[in-house]
Amino acid sequence: MQNFGMLIFMPNDSQNSSRPEGLRARKQRQTRQRIADVALRLFLEHGFEATTLDAIAASADISRRTFFHYFASKEAIVFALESDTEQLFRTVLAASTNDLPPLNAVRQALSVIISRYQTEEARSIDRLMRSTEALRARKQANYARQETALYNALSEKWPAPDRQPGLRLLAMVGIGAMRLAADCWHDDKGQRPLQNYLEEAFQRLRAEFDL
Questions:
Q1: Are the C-beta atoms of 198 and 107 separated by less than 8 Å?
Q2: How much is the pLDDT for 81?
Q3: Residue ranges covered by each domain of the chain
Q4: Exposed/middle/buried for 95, CB within 10 Å: 0-12, 13-18, 19+?
Q5: CATH number of 80-209
Q6: What is this structure's pTM?
């Protein structure tokens, strides 16, 4: 069975804190991870639509009711990966030097985000996310949320009011570059690292607008 743990649940602030994780919290995290691993395996084996909540619960050795303590829906499992995007943007941008041009800071932040998508398992999940109309629509909605998350992080880094329209535009352009990179990576069946496609997208951006 494939393990999608590194793809789905990146460490969050509470897990990185100096306080030790309690037994209850650890069991909850492990259960959540087990549900995600089982569900993604079933999705990839049988298809998203054909996989029922009851099948996921049975394979994860939990009740249907318990499932809803951890995930609101099947879609929520697939998109759990993006749950920490906003904090990642904040962390990476906060660590960048103040003299780094915002466009370069955005490229750096996006590089960190996509570094989680370099494996064959990530390609499998990408194919899954494109496999149904509902998931494709959710994927597009996630891009909008990522754009907002990036803009919020940029605004914290450069809070001057007169910069906000430009930073919003930069967030739109940055997420657009990431979308283009992801589409090219998918079309090429992952022949090269996703990072390469992102770098090429930013090179095209600079060439087209003489940046």
A1: yes
A2: 59
A3: 5-77, 80-209
A4: exposed
A5: 1.10.357.10
A6: 0.76
